[in-house]
Every structure is written in structure tokens, then in C-alpha cells.
Amino acid sequence: MAKKQIHLAAHFPGVNNTTVWSDPASGNHIEFASFRRFAQTAERGKFDFLFLAEGLRLREQGGRIYDLDVMGRPDNVAILQALAAVTDHIGLAGTVNSTFNEPLDVARKLATLDHLSGGRAAWNVVTSWDEFTGENFRRGGYLPKDKRYLRAQEMLATAQALWDSWDADDVLADAASGQFLRHGDAGRFAIRSDQFDISGRFPVPRSPQGRPVIIQAGDSEEGREFAASSADAIFTRHAELEAGQEFYADVKRRLEKFGRRPEDLKILPAATFVLGDTEEEAAENARQVQYQQVGPATAIAFAEQVWNRDLSDVDPDGPVPSFDPKTDDDVDSGGHISKGRASVRMYRDPVATANEWRELGEREGLSLREVVIRKNGRHTFVGTPQRVADTIDEFVQSDASDGFVLVPHITPGGMDPFVDQVVPLLQEKGSFRTEYEGTTLREHLGLRPSPTTVAAVSVEA
Amino acid sequence: MTQESALHLAVALDGTGWHPASWREPGARADELFTAGFWVDQVREAEAGLLDLVTFEDSFALDTDRADRAQGRLDAQLVALRVGPVTSRIGLVPTVVATHTEPFHVSTEIATLDYVTTGRAGVRVKVSSRADEYALFGRREYGAESHEGLFDEAADHIEVQRRLWDSWEDDAEIRDAATGRFVDRDKLHYIDFSGAHFSVRGPSITPRPPQGQPLVSALAHVDVAYRLAARGADLVFVTPGGVGRAGPTGDAEAILRQVRAEEASVGRTGEELRVLGDLLVVLDDSVDAARERLARLDATDGEELRSDARILTGTVGDVADVLESWHATGLAGARLRPAVTAHDLPRITRELVPELQRRGLFRTAYDADTLRGHFGLARPADRYAQV
Predict the structure, then answer these.
(1) What is the CATH number of domain A7-273+382-444?
(2) What is the pLDDT averaged over residues A75-89?
(3) Out of A22, A181, A184, whose CB is closest to B175?
(4) Which whole number is the average pLDDT over B334-354?
(5) Does the structure show a pLDDT above 90 at B218?
(6) What are the residues facing A94 on neighbouring strands?
(7) Which Pfam families match (chain B) (predicted)?
(8) Which among A457, A444, A460, A439 has a CA at the least distance from the CA of A207?
């Protein structure tokens, strides 16, 4: 029996405090050379895919643009397409929002990416919730919150119908007989649903993967169901062994009712790592990174996201504030101090969160900044390369995950130590590929080929 | 100071070529139409000929239901992005349909193309005038809006792209460890555009691209389109001796007069529009051979070739003569549409270009690194920067 294989993704750090931009090793995060370097490193490490998140609006806090983190990024699908020119094997995954895009445009872009990368495209389907983001787009904040998942589901189903509207053998391109297409109207579709009423012909012939790989991020009940019904991979925050095993079992259990097998959906928690030559050195490195990631100003900013008020006069090196958070503006009402930040939604009960922080501070004599670090700055894997490789393998072999989405804290060189020091150990264990065996991302992930096609499609609400 | 080429030369890439039978010609590689190599090789050929730029046609809708014609189309912006890293000097100008796209997305995509190519990005903006293209989006009723309204929207689309490109001042990123600030937010700007079809708040998510303002272009046959170009473009493609929606477009001189009149009437300031004439070319060693080729292609397709641009069937010398006469009239150059890319593109790069060089009309080496540079356009100041 072959050993269960680990799947690894490399996440080019986005716009949050993960990236320690003040580090002298921290380079440019917008020039193409940085993306090329990062992608080629991940490909050298035989990673399954590269992942880029999406930006639709700069974050704000207290009515001003949030200026403490790395910010500014290229269009992610555009960069992935360019990276296809300088890589040969690695999958290319990007987040594309279902709220501020139209299915024909998105399906066409992903099919193009798949064609022009030889079958390496993946789409992380996400939804938006706020009018804040909508202010940059034609429709504004048009979508009621309770329709977010409906739209995402219909968007995905529609895109899949569009990809399936061409059969793999529709293009003959037979110059001798003069027949380019088997049927003159390949790609014909008509879709009418709650969100869409579109018809015509999809312009892109079937791409190498048929359907690009579908990723869903989200730990919620709705997110789990969505992923179980139609995703090939799920991103999760559950990077702790027991919680991970619980999540893993729960999501895999849901697959059967959709007629799918456990191996049809890969579970990939997000993870950070800090290495050292000894355990002590790694722990010290991790501590330093945490303090760099949560500087005094960032600690205050994080506290403001819980307290939902200006805390600029609070001392980050003093105790957690004794007063309660402001709770009159709920996160979804648009009145919250922090805008454009999905993580704020975690603070469903800010008073309880504040109490928790205060108790932790009092119990262990921690300052506000230290509490923030404890709550937000924990690294997933800290240790020697051997320890990290052992832990990753243990997670995967004990069904806490199928692998990880790794995000380094330095751009663009932060993945190099992992690739150079940890990957060879995973390969020694027989848990990770030493060469790419397939050509498409579906093959890297051990997924079945896309379902075969149907000529005319109708998606009902 | 670089010496700007006397003539500017572009090639319009569209699949296997602009003749519907082109896909059946030797070397057409029709079975590779949807692969990267097909596009990379074409653009490298154009770059070997020192051309200013290539354009990539685009449309969401397919052109025909005929099974004996090549069909299928990739996203033009992504084609340009795939080509970007493996070319070094030539400008890359994908087409964007303003009517059905988000100006915010297009602005960041073109800015990204500019980053990937370190300053060789352009965009050609067009409006959608086909019912089948509207139906693919299902959001707007075809024919419900005036032609003028659609062009106004395209002008707004360009304006939003441009404001977003400027919304980050060049020195906005400060990495000030002392205060923990990565950017100086006083150098990031809301664009607060409000128009009939969209409002966009900004700033962009993407810092100001290498060229500051990538090159904006449009194809125009009628006054409303000349006006769009005059309002928002750097470069306009026109069709001397061709046919537009309103009938014959007139000769180069008449068109140029109209373009300049529109520039005056919209109060354009700064650089005047660079005007390139479009020409669909069927090239061969003699006029007779070229005519024979076209006749054969038409017979294969079963229909006579039709085009909005003038069709020139002849030798590279004939093309050079036309370009020279256009140049004398005041056009900046030409955009050539090869009837059969596999045949006519090498004729352009390997025969026409040397002929133009002999006449002292075309560069013998690239002397600029950016697309704006090829046209002698400086990197513009940021509209939001305090002087």
C-alpha cells in the first residue's frame, strides 16, 4: 500500500501583517521578478500549486486607508497567466470573487488560463458581503447578504456549464477537409437562474483540464456544504491536529451524499512555518517574527478591530483596556471601524473576546501587544526542518489534512528554506513527490478528470 | 534623447489571420490556435521586425456559426500576459470591450501587464455593438442605449482606468520602520468617479504602473469614435480608404482633419493623438501573385473578403508607397492586418521593414524600452501629485 501523499501549495503573501516588510531580506512585492522568483522556488520544491489571493479595495480603519501592512498588488489572474510563461508544472490558483464578476467573463478567463498554461488553472471561489467593496464596481453593494452563497453556487454551476458546453473533440482544425468544428454552433448554452439569465455561445473551446480545479475557502456550515458539493480542494484555518481531524472527518463525510468519494476533495489548511538549526533557535526565531509582525501600531490596530473604536491613546505595552468594546455597529451594518477585512467577522461577540484577552493578560501578566501576539501571531510549524517535516507528515498520515497551504513571512525568498530543507525530508519519508508525474494540476492533486460534457445546458434556480 | 522612428508600425493579430480561409493555409497552425506557443511565435516574429506594437483582437461573442471557419477565442488580455515575459521590447495591446467589463478590473489588469512587461502595456478600448454579446451577459438590453451613450460610457471607462493608474503616487510606498507605516496614505487618492453607468471610489489596489499611464488606443471609423479617441486615447487606429458604419471613411487627409477637429472640439491638451492607418494586406512578389492568392482564399471560403479597412493586394513596395504617402499627409504610421498571418506577417517583418528602413522611414533598432517611449511619449506626471 503506497503511503498517503502530501499536497503542498505556496501562497504568495498578500496584504496583511504576515509579511515582515521591515526585514532587510524583504523585497519588492509588486514587480514581476518577485513573483517569478517565488513561483520558480515553489516549482523547484515540486509544490502542487501557487496561490494568489485577490484585492478589490484597499482596507480602511477608522475612516482612513490602513497603512501598517504590505499593500498594493497586481491583478492575481493576470500575474498567474504571466507566470505560466516562466514555469512548466506548478498549478496556478487564484481567488476570483463571485459577487463583482460575471460568469461568462470569469469562465472565459479561467479557461484561457488553463489553455495557456497547459492545464494548470485553479479558481478559489469566494463571495463578498459588503457595500464597501461594491463602491469600486458597477453594481455597488447590490447583493443582499443572504444571497451571497446562492450567487457563488450559481456562478460556479454556470461556469461549469460554460466549460462543458464544448466537447473535447469539437475542434477538428482539419485543413484538408475544410472542417474546423464538428458542429458550427459548439459552445451553445442557455442559463436562467436566480442570478443569471444568459445565452449564446461560450467562446473558448474545452481547455486541457476540462474544468479548472475548484477551490473553496471557508469553515462555516454553508462553506463546508458548498465545498462538499462542488469543490476539488478546501482551504481551512484548522491547522491543529485534533480540530483538523474533526474538520477533515466532517467534510469528507459530507461527500457521499453528493455522489463523491473522499479523495475527490483535498483538505488544505493554511500554515506558517519558522525554522531553526535547533528547537531553541527556531523558537527564538519564531518569537522575533511574531514581534515584527505585531509592532506597537499593529497591536493597537488589532485591538481597535475588537473594540470597534479609536484606541490611539492606549499604550500597547500596558494592560488590555478595562472598558468594553463598542457593540452598536455590527460588522455587517457597514458601521464598523475596520473595513475590507474578512477576519473581523470572527469577532462575533466582541465583549467576550475582550474579556478573554483581558483574562489572559491578567493571568499571565501580558501587555496588550503580547496578548495580540498570543491570539493572532501563532505560527503553525516551528522547529528544526526534521521536526517540521515530521509534524506535517503526521498531520497528513493521521487524516488531519491532505497537505498545507504554506505562507512565508518574507517576500519573495521566504519559501527557499522550506524547499531546501524540509521538502527533501518529506521526500525521504516517501510522502511527497520527487518529480512531477502528471502535467495538469488535477493530476498533481490526484483528482479524477473532469466530468464528461453535455451539449446543451440549463441550470435551474 | 532617443530618436523617434519616422514611421510607426503595428500589426493586428487575430487568430490565423484576417482572411476567414487563413486557417487552411500552409503553416497556419490552426490546431494550435489555443496554445501559448502559437501566440508567442507570432509576437516574437513581430518583435524581430522591430514593430512598435501588436494588438490582440477580442470579443466575447464568436464571429460565425460556420463550421468551416476557425472559431473560438481566448481572453486577449491573458494572451498578452502570457506573451509578456518572453518578449522584451515590443508593445502589447489587448482589446477590451468597455460595455461589458468593470473599469476597475481592466485598470488593474492593464497595470499588471505593464508590470510584467516593465512598461510595454497598452489597451485598445471598444464598445459592444452586437446583440449576441449582450445576451452573454444578460444585464443590459441591446439597442436600448444610443450609440453616443455607449461611446460616452467607453470614455468614462478610460477615465476611470487612468485615474486608478494615478491613484498611487510613485513614492507612496515608504516602508517607514520607525512609525510602522508601509505607505504614506496621503499619497493614495480616492478617484471618486461618478458617471451614468458606474461610480468608482478607488484607490486602485495596484501601485502606479511603470509607464505611469499605459498607452490607450481605439479603432475609429466615425466622428463619435474619433471623439472618444480625442477624449481619452493616446493612439487612434483609422481606416483611410475603408468603410465604416456611416459609409466610406474618406482618405487619410480627410480622416486626419476630422480627428484634429474632434481634438479641438473636446479641448484636448498635451500630446496630440498619434494616428495610425489600418490596412489589410495580402502580400506577394507581384501584384498578380497577390491577387491570385486572394482569389484562391476567397474561393476556399466561398465569399469575397470584406473589411472595414482598405484591402491592399500587392507587393511590400506597394505597401511602403501607401505608408510613405500617409506619412506625408501626417499619419504617424500604420497598423497592418495580415490576411494570412503565417504568410503575410513574415513578409511584413522580413521584407516590408527592410524596405522602409532603406527609405529612411523606420528604425533600425529599438531605441526605447517602453511602449510610450516608442511613440516619443514621456512618462506623465501623476495628476494627483502635489507639485
Answers:
(1) 3.20.20.30
(2) 98
(3) A22
(4) 98
(5) yes
(6) A52, A123
(7) Bac_luciferase
(8) A439
